[in-house]
Amino acid sequence: MKNVTDSFVSLVNWPFAGSFGLNTDILATNPINLSVVLGVLIFFGKGVCVSDLLDNRKLRILNSIRNSEELQGGAIERLEKARARLRKIEIEADQFRVNGYSEIEREKLNLINSTYKTLDQLENYKNETIHFEQQRAINQVRQRVFQQALQGALGTLNSCLNKELHLRTISANIGMFGSMKEITD
Q1: Cβ atoms of residues 27 and 3 within 8 Å
Q2: Cβ-based neighbours of 7, under 8 Å, separated by 6 or more
Q3: Is the pTM for the entire model greater than 0.90?
Q4: What is the DSSP string of 25-43?
Q5: Which of 150, 154, 152 minimizes the C-alpha distance to 166?
Q6: What is the DSSP letter of 185?
Q7: Under 8 Å between Cβ of 169 and 177
Q8: How far is residue 79's CA from residue 85's CA, in Å, rounded to a whole number?
Q9: Cα separation of 43 and 36, whole Å?
Q10: Is-contact 8 26, C-beta < 8 A?
Q11: Residue 27: which residues within 8 A CB-CB, separation 6 or more?
């Protein structure tokens, strides 16, 4: 304690016109520095209250927290909307997928049915063509047979008929035509 009082006493004995120097005695300089700092703080900080500074800081922190919570709430709301939209889009995608598969199956069945109908029509056309060609061939054969029979009959008649038989046949045919004319009149 004596050192502390000695340091204050030594302040009184300082020369005023001396040079400026650095005092390395910690015990002597520390109380002086503290008293100067406290004096400056009291003189200049009369209007500033530490509790006011702390209250202002607390209000800023609370405002920051409130703003963060509002931003978080907005972000959560946007996230929920995005999730709802995602679920809706996933449902629509599933519906498109199911409808697409159903549409593909329907188109496949329609194509198969159309192919069967086309094949049936082609089969009918083929059968009609075959039937037509058969009828045509039958008619051609009939005409040839008839022509050959007619030629054979004419040949037989020409070889068997003489003039007299020929004249009698013509007279009979004329008589037949004459009687047919009287019946029709």
Answers
A1: yes
A2: 25, 27, 28, 31
A3: no
A4: -HHHHHHHHHHHHHHHHHH
A5: 154
A6: -
A7: no
A8: 10
A9: 10
A10: no
A11: 3, 4, 7
C-beta separation of 23 from 29 below 8 A: yes
Reading the block at residue 19, the tokens are 């040079």
pLDDT by position in tens, the chain (length 185): 455 455 544 554 555 545 666 667 666 677 777 888 888 877 776 666 667 778 889 999 999 999 999 999 999 999 999 999 999 999 999 888 888 888 888 899 999 999 999 999 999 999 999 999 999 999 999 999 989 988 888 887 777 767 777 788 888 888 888 887 777 76
Q: CA–CA separation, 37 vs 85, rounded Å?
A: 64
Quote the tokens at residue 64.
């920051």
At residue 84's C-alpha, the angle toward residues 90 and 86, to 5°, is 35
Show the tokens assigned to 174.
């004329």
